[in-house]
Amino acid sequence: MSFWSAVRYVHAATPVRMYFRIAMVALVGLEVWLAAHGTASDTSLVMLLVIQMFAVSTGFRGHACRGYYDALLTRFPRWKLALAHGTAAAGPGALAWIGIAATQVASARSVHVPALSAAALTAFALVSFVAWSVSIPLGPLTGGSLWLGSAVAAVAYGGAMRLAGLTQAGAATPATRFAVMMTFPPFLVGSSMEGPMLAALLGVGLLFLLGASGYISAASFPLREEAS
Amino acid sequence: MRLVPILAAAGIRKSYRGRPILQGADIALTEGAVVGLIGRNGAGKTTLLRILCGMVRSDEGEIRLNGSTVPPIGARPGLVQFGGGHTIPPGVSARAWGLLVSQGAWRSAETRPVRDLSRGTRQMIGLRATLATRGAGVIVLDEPWEGLDPDGARWLNVELTRKAASGAAILVSSHRLDDLARASHRYAFLADGTIRDRTREEGAPRIGGDDLLREYDRLNRKP
Hints:
Number of helices of chain B: 6
Distance between the termini of chain B: 38 Å
Structural class of chain B: alpha/beta
Number of helices of chain A: 11
Oligomer: heterodimer
Radius of gyration of chain A: 19 Å
Largest sheet of chain B: 6 strands, mixed
Order of helices and strands of chain B: EEEHEEEHHEHEHEEH
Largest interface: A-B, 30 and 33 residues
Distance between the termini of chain A: 32 Å
Shape of chain A: globular
Number of strands of chain A: 0
């Protein structure tokens, strides 16, 4: 079975939910509309990041324990299965991001394209890696739910404007800024975050990715009635 | 018939939450033979099948595929498996599922989502797709006759005979003892966590479902 066959299999078995895909298409449409009216905004990117938190959280363990991935588990190396699953889960969001970036490139009046800035790309990677990874053992939507829950708690505790202010260089210690960015990555869009901070955030995302791939590679998937 | 073990497991032990399920089970699948796996509900049949297929890690024991030891977890090249119609995702279209599982070798005429199909049709979709997969040297089926009508059951028996004749090693778990007796060359009774193997001797009278039921009762009789 080829890698792309496995991606198609995962997409057919446990697709990204239809309403997320519709919302993503709508955001690309919004970006086109904004560009046609000469308006530049990060709104589409920020909203896409929030949707991606949930869309990419397709879950793995529950589906595997229902037998949905049996044909892949018996025929396909586990690490490749993790890669195929991640690709299928993140694919629609990535395509929407590319659509928004293409619109911004086509309508750009300067060399700066928000969707292609290092900070925005880091935000997209971080959201996709962490939310997908969390959902692998815990189940669909858990990545987005936990993340949004912690963001809401942080806002309730610290106030949105104060948290946004903390992301500016020199406004807080690097550790505080890192914590704020981890709690609510959409703050990264449009920010001028320095390279080492972006690398650290991406590093955390990669650690989650490795953890989830390791889980898929090593875990047992008994049918639910079997282990009960 | 050559008695070359293609897939063999030795000393398989598995417990769930401290409750022993398998306690040193041994089984060997040979080229061109259908092995019928028989045991009461909860005996560990599905667990054993999933351990053989690399989906569940055993606590102890060794699995050999084509003569080489394979990791307890992971892909089994040349092995195809079907765990029943309930393992097909309900939202997928029957046609897409058939094409994906058979890797393009079988295309179902049915295009509706699996959730809209009867239990028997779901079962047939899964069986046809699994058995159509090219290059399958080992076939593992869990309760394959479940939900099939007489035509479907007859088709499956013919298909298993054909696959075995072409050299595949086949393991079938089922409670349908008459169908199992018709399809199998050997019988593996799973009771008290271990396997008792019975072979139908060449030229011996054909074993029937009643014979299997007697053996099943004998092994599961409490002292």
